[in-house]
Specification:
Chain A: This is Acyl carrier protein. The complex is a heterodimer of chains A (about 80) and B (about 400). Chain A has about 80 residues and is mainly alpha-helical. Helices cover about 55% and strands about 0% of the residues of chain A. Chain A has one domain (about 5-80): Non-ribosomal Peptide Synthetase Peptidyl Carrier Protein, Chain A, CATH 1.10.1200.10. Chain A has helices at about 5-20, 40-55, 60-65, 70-80. The radius of gyration of chain A is 11 Å and the shape is globular. The longest helix of chain B has 16 residues, at about 70-85. Chains A and B meet through α2 of A and loops of B.
């Protein structure tokens, strides 16, 4: 099973690739929109890339609940369990 | 009410000849060709395997994350617009953005985005299609990005008149300032469709040169051996400004945009009227609008795309509407045909010709067409005093745009 740190590191790579987020800024308590400046279109890209990277499905109605990096980590960990 | 004078206070370009207006102009005066063989794998199957590609890739001027959201035509427009803005001294000038408008058009828009995303759709399904697809392919995308860059609030417009677009955009800019809706207009055109589908489409029309073995000699307006246009990509942007506004901020002025005219042939979807009636009306109308007589026009930057029919129809029209005195050039011989950007990049060449009193050459004019009865600056740049000059641009659909630039 993938650890929370591994998932955070994977998300961090995706965030840097699609939205230019500095990996040093990525932490579980950071909000995608308020802290990391990820806009709605980039968030779609992050979700699609995360689905591929972690082999999970993240339905659109789940995405609105993923406010912070930690929310996404929890969801991905549960979905891939 | 007296009509305000409109002047050009900034220029910017990214073309097959250079990554900015200065290097493009220098390459033009030197008579260099920006046409080369297409080395991409997809080109091998095409009847046309040459094009004039951007000299400087947009990735050298725009950061990676921004570039992910831009069609290549949008990136080119943004690069040219930033240069023009800077050149006009508007960066940090505190311009009233409610008096700032943008007119930037494209002939085809984000076709390469559309086609690339369709490949993704076919290969990987709809969920993999980029959420940036629509703003990248919409034809107003370039104008919108340029508007956002400078915070323009007096209107953002995007004419689409095929290969007349770049010149038509500048004509709209003139109207906007004259009608009092803005003090400054960022105007021009952009295009980037070097992709197998557009090339195959134009090639199927038999509109393109197939001189694949001699790329640099393929674009040869007015020459007996011309066999079609060479596709180019890039963008040209000018800053148009009300003359008293420019004077108040002590801006440098390249030239006056003295007049413009837009007409339509009402003849055929792609064939030019063989009598050239629509382009004659555009030329005469532009001169009338500028309030100058035909004999003042000492230079014409012709639309001349290097197609067998079009080049001579234009010469015939020039002879009728303007007379025999202008020194003509076709800079497409060097940078190819930039479609919706052509009229803008060639306007910049016309503006600089008026500013510096020099006509850039028409290269490859080795064996002039027997019907060529105007003086063309073949091979070498030509120095002469240019009080007034025309830029012509015509497009599929029967669109005709003619602009008149005069000394400031």
């Amino acid at each position: 099973m993938t650890t929370r740190d591994e998932i955070t590191a994977g998300l961090s790579e995706i965030l840097e690739e699609v939205a230019g987020v500095n990996p040093d800024d990525v932490a579980e308590d950071k909000s995608f929109t308020d802290d990391l400046d990820v806009d709605s279109l980039s968030m779609v890209e992050v979700v699609v890339a995360a689905e591929e990277k972690f082999s999970v499905k993240i339905p659109d109605d789940e995405v609105q609940n993923l406010k912070t990096v930690g929310d996404a980590v929890t969801y991905i960990q549960k979905a891939s369990a | 009410m007296t009509r305000p004078d409109v002047v050009v206070t900034g220029i910017g370009a990214t073309t097959p000849l250079g990554g900015d207006a200065a290097s493009t102009w220098e390459a033009m005066l030197a008579g260099r060709s920006g046409v080369s063989a297409l080395e991409q794998e997809w080109a091998a199957q095409l009847p046309v395997r040459i094009a004039a590609q951007l000299k400087v890739d947009p990735s050298e001027r725009i950061d990676r994350i921004k570039l992910r959201r831009l069609d290549r035509s949008e990136a080119a427009a943004l690069i040219a617009a930033r240069e023009a803005w800077e050149d006009a001294g508007l960066a940090g000038a505190g311009l009233d953005t409610q008096r700032l408008a943008v007119v930037v058009g494209s002939g085809i828009g984000g076709a390469t985005t559309l086609l690339n995303q369709d490949d993704i759709l076919e290969a990987s399904g709809p969920r993999k299609v980029s959420p940036h697809t629509v703003p990248m392919l919409m034809p107003n995308g370039s104008a919108a990005w340029v508007g956002l860059e400078f915070g323009a609030e007096a209107g953002v417009h995007s004419p689409a008149s095929a290969c007349a677009t770049g010149a038509e955009s500048i004509a709209w800019g003139l109207d906007i300032i004259r009608s009092g809706r803005a003090d400054v207009v960022v105007a021009g055109g952009t295009e980037s469709v070097i992709h197998p589908l557009p090339i195959a489409g134009f090639a199927s029309m038999r509109a393109m040169s197939t001189r694949n073995d001699e790329p640099e000699r393929a674009s040869r307006p007015f020459d007996k051996g011309r066999d079609g246009f060479v596709l180019g990509e890039g963008s040209g942007i000018v800053i148009l400004e009300r003359a008293d506004h420019a004077a108040a901020r002590k801006a440098k002025v390249y030239a006056r945009l003295a007049g413009a005219a837009l007409t339509s042939d009402g003849y055929d979807i792609v064939q030019p009227d063989p009598e050239g009636r629509g382009i004659i009306r555009a030329m005469s109308g532009a001169l009338r609008d500028a309030g100058i007589s035909a004999s003042d026009v000492m230079h014409v930057n012709a639309h001349a795309t290097s197609t067998p029919v079009g080049d001579m129809a234009e010469i015939h029209a020039l002879r009728k509407a303007v007379g025999s005195q202008p020194v003509v050039t076709a800079t497409k011989s060097m940078h190819g045909h930039l479609l919706g950007a052509a009229g803008a990049v060639e306007s910049i060449a016309t503006i600089l010709a008026v500013h510096h009193d020099v006509v850039p050459p028409t290269i490859n004019l080795d064996d002039p067409d027997d019907a060529l009865d105007l003086d063309v600056a073949a091979h070498q740049a030509r120095r002469l005093t240019i009080p007034a000059a025309l830029n012509d641009a015509f497009g599929f659909g029967g669109h005709n745009a003619v602009l008149v630039f005069t000394k400031a």
